[in-house]
Amino acid sequence: MLRAKVSGAKVLLLGLVFSYSFSIRCAPPLPEVITLSYISHPYIENHVLPLMEKVYRDLGIQVEFVLQPSQRNMYLASSGQTDGEVAYSELLVNEHDNLVKVGKSLIASQFILLCHDSVRCSVSVLSEDDVTMLITEASYGGIKSHYGESFEAQPYILSTLSNIPKLIEQKRILYGIYVTTFGDSSLDTYQHLQKQFLFSTATYHVLNTRLGYLAPLVSERMEKYAAQYIQGYGISKPQ
Q1: Contact 134, 176 (CB under 8 A)
Q2: Which CATH superfamily is domain 110-201 in?
Q3: pLDDT tens across 94-120, in order?
Q4: Rounded (5°) CA angle 6-11-13
Q5: CATH superfamily to which 33-106+203-228 belongs
Q6: Is the Cβ–Cβ distance between 47 and 229 less than 8 Å?
Q7: DSSP strand E in the chain: where?
Q8: Is 110-201 the same fold as 33-106+203-228?
Q9: Sign of the CA dihedral 36, 180, 141, 40?
Q10: How far is the C-alpha of 12 from the C-alpha of 118, rounded, in Å?
């Protein structure tokens, strides 16, 4: 009887060892290099890119960062032409079934109405159809998702978000939509801007689903290193 119990225990142990070794052999190998797109934004470039480089280097993966115009980066990541996006608004990520959100919200993105200091700066201008509004295609998607048909300003689409405050400062156009976050001081150098908070949304690092198996590993390291690079990791709304 005792011998039977011992034999049964050995069989169970061997089964567990075999199952573990089989799962190890079947796990997809980590890629040597991946390509991540990103948008031109001072906070992304100065804080989030270094975090992503650290996270993937810790996994032994080299990252090639590719600067892309707003909205095109999501198309590239969604279609598999790149492996993912460094950081993108949850409002737009949720529209793509073949993208995986990785870990917690990286940052709480804040949509801001920028106005030249010579004009009235109020949320009401969003519904005025004689107002021209500088905006990226991606931000326009977020604004329309949030405000719907009540947004009636005329969009002037730019591909580079960081150009919006520059053009308003120069009084080329008087209004624009900008996206900022905790600790972003990039607007402080402008002398003729007014700012009106509109709403906030979570922002996530995303991967194409074919690399979804990396998400737990990347998430674990984001949790480990985030505080060294960015403020407010895991916070989806301003506190």
Answers
A1: yes
A2: Periplasmic binding protein-like II (3.40.190.10)
A3: 778 889 999 999 988 899 999 999 999
A4: 95
A5: Periplasmic binding protein-like II (3.40.190.10)
A6: yes
A7: 33-38, 62-67, 84-89, 99-116, 132-136, 154-158, 175-180, 193-208
A8: yes
A9: negative
A10: 78
User: How far is the C-alpha of 35 from the C-alpha of 208, rounded, in Å?
Assistant: 11
Ranges of each domain in the chain: 33-106+203-228, 110-201
- Return the CA Rg of the chain: 23
**Residue 117 DSSP code:** T
Give the closest residue to 51 by CA, choosing from 191, 225, 174, 202: 225
Looking at residue 234, what is its pLDDT? 74
Q: Which two tokens stand for residue 53?
A: 């480089």
For 155-199, what is each residue's pLDDT tens digit? Answer: 999 988 889 999 999 999 999 999 988 778 888 889 999 999 999
Inter-CA distances, 165 with 14, 41, 158, 199, Å: 65, 11, 12, 18
Q: Would you tell me how many other CB atoms lie within 10 Å of the CB of residue 204?
A: 23
Structure tokens at 225: 């290193």
